[in-house]
Amino acid sequence: MTARNLTLATAAFALTFWAWNLIGPLSSSYTKMLHLSAGQTSLLVATPVLVGSLGRIPVGVLTDRFGGRRMFAVICLLTIIPVMFVGSANSFGSLLFWAFLLGVGGTSFAVGIPFVNNWYEASRRGFATGVFGVGMGGTALSALLTPRLVEHLGRMTTHLIMAAALAVMGAVMLLFSKDSPKWSPATEPALPRIREALRMRATWQGAFLYAVAFGGFVAFSTYLPTVLHNVYDFAQSDAGIRTAGFAIAGVLARPVGGMLSDRVGPVRVLIAAFAGVALMAVLLALELPAELPAGATLVVMAFFLGLGTGGVFALVAKLVEPARVGTVTGLVGAAGGLGGYFPPLVMGLTFARTDTYTLGYLLLAGTAAAALLFTVTLRRAVAPPTHADAAVRAVASRAHH
Fold this sequence. Notes:
The chain is mostly helical. The chain has one domain: MFS general substrate transporter like domains (Growth Hormone, Chain: A), CATH 1.20.1250. Helices cover 82% and strands 0% of the residues. The chain has helices at residues 2-20, 27-34, 38-54, 56-66, 68-88, 92-102, 109-117, 125-132, 137-153, 155-176, 190-198, 201-232, 236-264, 266-285, 292-319, 325-354, 358-376, 379-382, 387-400.
């Protein structure tokens, strides 16, 4: 039962993430069709990320209230509407509007983390959330398959297939998934729970770290086709294949990050991840040649970003009680999504002004270095208690009584 629910949640996450990323892999064709500037293209690519980020806050709260089974079904079914209209939009204004609503698909993350957390003991939650995070592979599927499906079947038919798949997945979640027996509906009002979560230090710690790790992954997964087209003049389908390779590396690294966090602790995993991201970003700023040098650097960067995403939620699982995980996940997930919203805008602006992405890469390197330094300060917060700590608590307890 536990494995089945983890598998179903991962599949639903992957499909909704594919839908969430339908626009990025087609960005070059939208640019040509609608005669968009670099700034307009980056805004179009980034817009679904905005709703997929902020929407995680209410969705996380609703998951605490109604459970992951029902919320997965609702997210799948609601995402059908913008998927259909994105497939038929023929102006920048209408495409931007439906791209905004397409972000609903990205909120599924805030459903899945508490859903799978409740099925596993604390010592296995790094593994569980890491495996669930493989659903980020939906971005790889979109990068790899969406341009090819559009080439062979047309844009509208491709979107109709995605809508049908979402309808089937929604029905599957209702019929075959189940909320954990350990889960019980949160009955207190939503706003007090959000305020309480915002007062928790762990929420802000996780939010910052996830904004860098997951935000970096989302930003590259959505905007990399545009970068490859602008810098290396790759065709849309060729850029999609290479972006899929980037996304797959990040997806495979996420469960590794979760499992390593269970073994050596999330802080060590995050230190390694952010150090690697900073180094790879500096290398990319050197404008490496296409294929092997640039491609290998991007894949290694994706691995470190994926490692970091797995480590962050292993850290959250250690710092937050299970009854609050849904609400905290919504807030942390929102920060992660917002972390992916701004980089495409910055990259588009720097390219429009300088005809290069060097400044954008250097800003990423600096941000990752800041996250690395912040992570070092968390060592004590998650360190196991020492014998001395236990003795101090025992003395304090006897004095109290």
